[in-house]
Amino acid sequence: MGTAYRTLVLRYDLSRLPPNVAEKVPALLKVQEEFRRWATEWALSGGKESMPERSPLKYFAKVFLHAGRTLDWLYGVKNGVKPKRLRPPLVFDAQLRLGNEKDVSRGVFVDVPKREVRVRRWSGKRSETIVLSLGDKAVEWIVARVREGGRLVLAAAWVGASRRSRTAKLYVALVFRREATPMQLKRLFVVDLNALHNGVAWAVVEGERILKRGVLRPDVSKLMHLQKRIAELDSLCANKGKACEEAMAAKSRLWRMLRSFEDDVAKELIWLARKRKAAIVVDVPYDVSIRRLKEGGYVAERKVFLNFGHLRKRLRRLAEWYGVPYREEHLYSTICPRCGAEMEELPNRRVRCACGFEAHRDEVPVLWAVKRFRELTSPFLKQIIKPG
Ligand SMILES: [Zn+2]
């Protein structure tokens, strides 16, 4: 059994909150700052700093340390890395109501029938509550996790500016935990992480056979168009002004498009792997080859497609959640799977070997997975037997 976590982050634009909610945010922010000061002291003291005595800080310190034990997010702190400043969110114990369960007064109460999230215990006054709305998509997500056996174990809230736009938002994160039973596996699901504009190639391999393969592609022309627009705006933007703002907006649109493509691809790939009871092998290019691509004659506009760190992380998380064995490998794409010689690269992403082997570049890693099938499937077995 492996324990896996998934988090739903709810975002609320401060400017769009109803006035009776918005007026409470400054007080929440104040508690957040106080708590961060304590957390920093605590980290600097190597965990020896005493617990705060008054509420709500006492409550937050307790839940924070408890969460740190279960989630390992204080890993660095515990291992003696002393940060200058710790910026944790306010962590709450939480309860999820799906029907008519009794409210047991936890810090965050997610009331699905009422479509509400109640944030409490952040003020000295017990009755002070921030009531936020819960949208359809969030409800859908929550219900899906519960159906899969997930349980709400923690919540976190913080006020901050998002990395991309500079507007302040109120964030509430709901953390679900699931005990995943590792899947029995007979097959490999090979995923080729290449530059995103070439699409993400996948294949199902069983023994010496490739059962099925496919490619998931983003809307490249749309992305390229947006990139061109960004370049134009960037050249018009000297210092400040309308062009700069538009450039910023276009950049965040591009970023969102790539993100949502990556999220969709991750979901689709995991679904495909589960359907075929296959363990996932992600072919990750060597950092060197990516660096070479980024520095070299690679068209500047395309560089953005090479950052697939997010996709990789999503895949790993989802695989954990569903108990799909997952590993990352370096599979060759220019070494001949038949004779092992370095192959010649032809136009249109084809490769050819002196021995007569010729293929599309994307097919080669899969052939290597076929060749290494036994080796690639065996450590998974160990992984399943290993406790925890
Ligand atoms: Zn060859």
| Helix/strand order, N-terminal first | EHHHHEEEEEHEEEEEHHEHHEEEEHH
The share of residues in extended strands comes to: 15-25%
Number of helices: 11
Largest sheet: 5 strands, mixed
Q: Kindly report the spatial arrangement of strands forming the biggest sheet.
A: 11-10-9-12-13
Distance between the termini: 6 Å
**Average predicted local confidence, pLDDT:** 85
Determine the structural class based on helices, strands and strand pairing: alpha+beta
What percentage of residues falls in helices of 4 or more residues? Answer: 25-40%
Rg, Å, rounded: 25 Å
Bound compounds, please? zinc ion
Number of strands: 16
| Low-confidence spans | 382-388
Estimate the global geometry from the Cα principal axes: globular
Number of domains: 2
What does this structure look like?
The protein is α+β, with helices and mostly antiparallel strands and 388 residues long. It has two domains: 2-180, no CATH class; 187-217 and 261-331 and 372-384, Nucleotidyltransferase, domain 5 (2-Layer Sandwich). Helix content is 39%, strand content 24%. It has eleven helices and 16 strands. It has a five-stranded mixed beta sheet with strand order 11-10-9-12-13, sandwiched between helices. Helix 6 (220-236) packs antiparallel against helix 7. The longest helix has 34 residues, at 242-275. The chain is globular, with a radius of gyration of 25 Å. Residues 382-388 have low confidence and may be disordered. Zinc ion is lined by residues 336, 338-339, 341, 353, 355, 357.
Salient structural properties:
globular, binds zinc ion, Nucleotidyltransferase, domain 5, alpha+beta, 388 residues
